[in-house]
Amino acid sequence: MTADAPGPVSSSDDGRSDGDSGDVASLSDAQKSLRAQMLATEHWSLLASRSTTQSEVLTRIAIFLTLVSAGLVTLGVLGNATGFRGWFGIAALGVLTLLAVLGVVTQLRVFNTATEDLAYVLAMNRLRGAYVDLDPGIERYFITGTTDDEVGAGTTYYPFGARNRSQVFASSMMVMLVVNTALLGLLLGAITFAIGGSVGWSVALGAVVGITAFALWMRFGYRSYRHVMRMHAPLRRAGDV
Predict the structure, then answer these.
(1) Of 22, 125, 173, 179, which sits with the fewest C-beta atoms within 10 Å of its C-beta?
(2) Cα(151)–Cα(68) distance, rounded to whole angstroms?
(3) Which one-letter DSSP state was computed for residue 136?
(4) Which residue has the higher pLDDT, 79 or 168?
(5) How far is CA 40 from CA 6, 14, 22, 182, in A?
(6) Is 10 within the bounds of a domain?
(7) Rounded to the nearest 5 degrees, what angle is found at the Cα of 117, between the Cα atoms of 111 and 123?
(8) Is the pLDDT of residue 177 over 60?
(9) Residues of 222-232 as b/e, b for ≥16 C-beta within 10 angstroms?
(10) Do 84 and 75 meet the contact criterion of CB atoms below 8 Å apart?
(11) Helices and strands of the chain, counted as H and E runs
């Protein structure tokens, strides 16, 4: 992310660019007004991009869950029609494989969207910090973050306290993850049974695969989050304002 003011920016050890206050103080009222308009334009652009991204991924999740529901109902109908014999096993594996592939693709998009959303939040926090530089008295009217660091991002996501695990586990991402990993476990269990494994072994393998996949996806999501925070260089930090 680039600084709002043109030209090279040198950062001090505390993460804020050198001469920020002096730069704003040297601006005329007309220049401050122009800068505020430019910042507001960028802010609206980020809001539109964030809204579009969230709408798109929620639609993707809804489509996937609809396909899973339709696929399982289809297998139930086929099972009743074939007595769960003959070509039903091949059809079931085909449907489960297709759903599992779609689930992996959708899950990747969900996690990519989460990192994109974090970038949008950090960018808008940086803009709010620029508003505060232009008019320090306005800061008390913001309930979202005005620092573009991890603390500021957490304030924007949840202004009224520290974020806790309930917000993560109650998210749409978690719903998608639970369904997707359960589907993977079901597919591997079905394959195990199809090649001659017992019911007990099939259930056990499916459960292990599902739990392992859940843990790996969670690790992937956390690493993606940490990667964004490592790559981002804040201009304002919570402890310095």
Answers:
(1) 22
(2) 38
(3) G
(4) 79
(5) 16, 26, 22, 44
(6) no
(7) 145
(8) yes
(9) eeebeebeeeb
(10) no
(11) 7, 0
Round to whole Å and give the CA distance between 193 and 52. Answer: 43
Per-residue pLDDT at 29: 79
The SS3 of residue 17 is strand
Claim: this prediction has a pTM higher than 0.85: no
pLDDT of 14 above 60? no
Name, in order, each residue with C-beta under 8 angstroms of 168's C-beta and a sequence gap of 6 or more.
Answer: 174
β partners of residue 11: 17
Question: Residue 219 is part of which domain span?
Answer: 28-232
Asked whether residue 12 is assigned to any structural domain, the reply reads: no
Exposure on the CB side of residue 87, measured as CA atoms within 13 A: 4
Residue 133 confidence (pLDDT) above 50: yes
Residue 3 placed within a domain:
no
- pLDDT for the residue numbered 161: 72
Number of residues that this document lists for the chain: 241
As a whole number, the mean pLDDT across the chain is: 87
Distance (Å, whole) CA 88 – CA 79: 6
- Cα–Cα nearest to 125, from 20, 54, 39: 39
131 or 4: whose pLDDT is higher?
131
Query: Does the pLDDT of residue 125 top 90, yes or no?
Result: yes
Q: Is residue 2 part of a domain?
A: no
